[in-house]
């Protein structure tokens, strides 16, 4: 197996190896019932998914899981090494792998009432609210194919003893690369988007672009959250010779990890943002981070700072950000996550601009769903399901909510 190090001493497993070669823990899991219903809410990949089978996170390609179950002839055989367990199960390929997720008539709300396992992705989130959890009498396991399970009411999952697992580490490099791209080239410091649009229009006026283009060297960059992604962003910024790299996180980095990137912890968030030229958001969405970047916090940002948020849209107040960009208090806002997904056509973040007509680096939610990432999170989701089916303990790092309690420390201080 291939394991890369993590700043907090954990490990990130790449999914090239057999899921059964991992060490097991003593956590106990319920054995899956026979004839269980697995409900997967994915997005429709349409033409692209038919042409590109590596688009695994789509209703068409079903994370590769449907094929796998079919291949097993609805009779699942364990790893063949130490267990050979046959579980009869039916997966409802087609109807129950669906993108229809909003409203009482959606497939999601119709089928959640008797599903035992729910598979979702953050890219097309099936919002599992407290009300839906109360109706989901059979639900035992939620698998997030990806990272970030805030679309599930985690407190209600704790109360109802529904486990929530995600494929930790599966797309953290993909996101960290997107963050650095956003900071550096694509949009913000270098004012790239207006420069390219000028070229497409047939115009040429260097001064209109250069008046708002800067080097990253010598700037101060700070991350809100220094976990797997936040730390990787800092690692990737080291060669750019920033003036300083700061982080705000209630969990301090181990000294050696902080030292190796030269990261300085700032214990007060207002204090940190007031020093930063660029702020990047890399913490999960939970009660303590919803609306964290609001009018009040933005007042403490340096005038003309850049903000990159690939964590979750709702961590930033939509209208406060739009106002700050429009006034020029922020020079740019970039990210791929939205408070509602898919974002409505008239969402202000689609078109907001700074006073010079630039500074908008918004894209659809895709930074963590590169084809490389999809291979990893599809394999990870399958491995979680497989473990569940044969009653094998799960990777501890993947467990957000265990039986009746939070296992992850990343979703707020408790
Ligand atoms: P992680 O669990 O490794 O790190 C999260 C860090 O945030 C932890 O160190 C935690 O202590 C810190 N944190 C939590 N609450 C905080 C607060 N109030 N203030 C400051 N720090 C706080 O998670 P990872 O893998 O780094 O992912 C972070 C988030 O990024 C995910 O939860 C998800 O929402 C988002 N994400 C987005 C993707 C995309 O495609 N745009 C893909 C993957 C993740």
Automatic annotation (TrEMBL):
Binding residues for NAD(+): 228-229, 249, 284-288, 310, 336, 365-368
Organism this protein belongs to: Mycena venus
This protein's GO CC annotations: cytosol
Protein name as annotated: Formate dehydrogenase
Enzyme Commission number: 1.17.1.9
Catalytic activity line of the entry: formate + NAD(+) = CO2 + NADH
GO molecular function: formate dehydrogenase (NAD+) activity; NAD binding; oxidoreductase activity, acting on the CH-OH group of donors, NAD or NADP as acceptor
Keywords: Cytoplasm, NAD, Oxidoreductase
Site location (Important for catalytic activity): 312, 365
Residues annotated as signal peptide: none
Function: Catalyzes the NAD(+)-dependent oxidation of formate to carbon dioxide. Formate oxidation is the final step in the methanol oxidation pathway in methylotrophic microorganisms. Has a role in the detoxification of exogenous formate in non-methylotrophic organisms.
Domain of life: Eukaryota
Residues given in the record as substrate binding sites: 147, 171
Span of the entire protein shown here: 79 to 492 of 492
GO biological process: formate catabolic process
